[in-house]
Design a protein that fits this description.
Elements (H helix, E strand, L loop, with lengths): L3 H14 L7 E3 L8 H11 L3 E3 L3 H4 L2 H11 L3 E5 L1 H7 L3 H7 L4 E4 L5 H5 L9 E6 L9 E4 L13 E2 L3 E6 L13 E6 L10 H7 L13
Helix pairs in contact: 1-2, 4-6
Length: 217
C-alpha cells in the first residue's frame, strides 16, 4: 500500500523536472490500472497541460502511433519503454515523429541496448531514463541521456526530490564512492508495506540507519 503524500510529492517532481506546463500535450501510453497511467494522466493536468487518450489499438501499431502524435500535436511521452522505442525505430514514419517530440521518458527495462543500437539519435528532444522498483512511487531516480551517451553501463542518474538513495553493504553500512553496494531507497515514495504480510514487510522495509527516527528503506 502507498501513501497519498508520496504521490503528491512525486507528481510535483515530474512536473518540475520535466518542465511540464500549459503548452504540454502528453500522450497517455500506459494501460489503465498500471501505476504509470497515473503519471501519464495527472502530471500534465497538474501543470495545466493536455492529455491525449485514444483507443489502445492505435498505440500498438507504429504507423497509427505516428499518425496520433501528428494529429494531436503530441510533444511529450512520460511512460514509454525501451522495447516500445525499439519497435517504433523500425518504422520510418514513427521515427520522424520521435524526432519531433520535446520529451521522451523511458522506464521499466534497461535502456542500454536501445542506446547501444544508436537509439539516442532517434529522439529529437530530451530522453530521460527513469528507475524505480514497485515498492516505491513509480520513479526514484532519473537521468537525462546526453546526445552521445555512455553505453558501457546502465546509468539511472540521481534521486528525484523527496527520495533518498543509499548504497549499503550487507551490514547496512554506506559504501565508499566507486565501490559496489546494494541499492536502498527511502523517502516519501516508499510504500507502507505488503498488505496483510507484516513479516515480509518488516524484512523488506528495514529502518533507515542514516535517516530521521521512524524512516524506512
Amino acid at each position: 500500500s502507498r501513501r497519498a503524500g508520496g504521490l503528491d510529492t512525486y507528481l510535483r517532481a515530474v512536473v518540475r523536472d520535466n518542465a511540464l506546463g500549459p503548452g504540454t500535450v502528453a500522450l497517455q501510453l500506459a494501460p489503465p490500472g498500471y501505476d504509470a497511467s497515473i503519471r501519464d494522466t495527472f502530471a500534465p493536468l497538474a501543470a495545466g497541460g493536455c492529455v491525449v487518450l485514444v483507443e489502445r489499438s492505435r498505440l500498438l501499431r507504429a504507423e497509427s502511433f505516428a499518425d496520433t502524435v501528428a494529429e494531436y500535436g503530441v510533444d511529450t511521452l512520460l511512460s514509454t519503454t525501451p522495447s516500445f522505442l525499439g519497435f517504433l525505430a523500425q518504422s520510418p514514419r514513427a521515427v520522424r515523429r520521435l524526432r519531433s517530440l520535446r520529451l521522451v521518458c523511458s522506464s521499466g527495462e534497461s535502456l542500454r541496448p536501445f542506446l547501444a543500437a544508436g537509439g539516442r539519435a532517434l529522439v529529437g528532444g530530451r530522453l530521460v531514463n527513469q528507475y524505480g522498483p514497485s515498492e516505491c512511487t513509480m520513479t526514484s531516480t532519473r537521468y537525462d541521456v546526453p546526445a552521445a551517451p555512455d553505453t558501457s553501463a546502465d546509468i539511472v542518474g540521481t534521486a528525484i526530490d523527496g527520495t533518498v538513495v543509499r548504497l549499503l553493504d550487507p551490514r547496512g553500512r554506506e559504501v565508499p564512492d566507486g565501490r559496489t553496494g546494494e541499492v536502498h531507497i527511502g523517502g516519501a515514495g516508499v510504500a507502507r508495506g505488503y498488505g496483510g504480510q507484516p513479516g515480509l514487510t518488516a524484512d523488506r522495509f528495514p529502518p533507515d540507519p542514516y535517516g530521521p527516527p521512524g524512516t524506512r528503506l
